[in-house]
C-alpha cells in the first residue's frame, strides 16, 4: 500500500464506486425483471407432475407472486383433481409426459408425487433427462422440512437433516462456549459491586435468601438449577406450577424494580460460566410447563437442542413474560437453525436497547 505507483485514494474511490454501482445495477435488474414478469415476459413455462396438497400450495404461491418468473401451463396426474377449485388445466397422465416434452413448450418440470405414486418417479426423471428438460422434486412431506434443508453425505448417500443445528459443529460449539466463558467471567468481575448492592437491597426488602434457586430444563432435556435475585416474598412453591404475571402479589417493591430492568437475571452469569446456560439462546422453562407445552405447542421440545440463554431472539422481538408461547418457539427455532456468531452479537446488542426493560415483568 506504500508503493509510489499505487494511489491509495484511487483504491478507496474504486471500492466506494464499485460497491455503489454494483448495488444500483442489481437493484435495477431486479426491478426490471419484476416488471417484465408481471406483464408476462421472461417467464419459464412450468409443468407440474403429480397433484397433491404440496403441489397445490406451490401453485397458489406462484399465482400470488408473478415476479418469480413462472407460468404453470398445466399438471399431470393419474387421478385428476375432482373439486374443480383450480383453473390449472389438466394435461393427462404420467404416460403423457414424453409427448408434452417433445413439443418443446415446457422449460421445467416440478415432480410432486404422493407416497403411493413413487414407483413412477424413476421413469419420470428418466423422461425429463432424455428430453433435456430440468426437473425438480417437491416432496409430499415438505411440511416436515425446514425452509433451507441441510444435507449430510454418509458414504455417498445424502442424508436430509430435518432440523439443522449449526452448533452441532465442533468449531461453532467451541467458539460459542469460549465466548460465553470469557464474557460471563469478565461480567461477574466487573459487575461484582452492582451484585453486592443488589444483594443488600434484596436482603433489606424482605426476609429470606438473597439468591433464588429454581429448577429449569436445559440442553438435552437435562434439569439444572438456575439462579436469580429473589424478587418475591417467601411463600409456598406455587411458582413451580403458576405462570407469573405483572399482577403477582408475591412480588416485593424492590423485586418489581429488579424484574422490570432484568437485574434479577444477573446471577445467571454464573450459570453461563458453569455451562448450564449460554449468553444467548432459548429461555429455559420449569419442568411442569415443559411437560405442559410439549403436548400443546408444536416443536416446543426442539428448543432443548441447544443451551438455554439469558437473552434470545424471542426476547429482543418482544416475546417474553406473559406473551404467546407459539411466537416464542418460532423465534427459538429460527435462532437454532440460523445460528452464527455474528447473530449472537446482534442479539446481545439488541438486548441492550430492546431487551433489558421488561414491560411484562416475567418470571
Topology:
Elements: H1 8-38, E1 44-49, H2 53-64, E2 70-76, H3 97-102, E3 108-111, H4 121-130, E4 134-137, E5 150-154, E6 157-161, H5 170-190, H6 192-205, E7 211-217, E8 223-229, H7 253-260, H8 268-274, E9 278-280, H9 287-296, E10 309-311, H10 313-316, H11 325-337, H12 341-355
Parallel strand pairs: 1-2, 1-3, 3-4, 9-10
Antiparallel strand pairs: 5-6, 7-8
Helix pairs in contact: 5-8
Query: Total helix count?
Result: 12
- Run of helices and strands: HEHEHEHEEEHHEEHHEHEHHH
Give the strand tally: 10
Q: What's the rounded overall pLDDT mean?
A: 86
Number of domains: 2
- End-to-end separation in angstroms reads 56 Å
The class by helix and strand makeup works out as: alpha/beta
- Helix % is 40-55%
- Major beta sheet, strand line-up: 2-1-3-4
Low-confidence stretches: none
CA-based shape: extended
Largest sheet: 4 strands, parallel
Radius of gyration: 28 Å
**Beta-strand share of residues:** 5-15%
Indicate the multimeric state.
Answer: single chain
Please describe what this structure looks like:
The protein has 363 residues and is α/β, with parallel strands linked by helices. It folds into two domains: 38-144, NAD(P)-binding Rossmann-like Domain (Rossmann fold); 168-355, no CATH class. The protein contains twelve helices and ten strands. A four-stranded parallel β-sheet has the order 2-1-3-4, sandwiched between helices. Helix 5 crosses helix 8. The protein is extended. The relative contact order is 0.08.
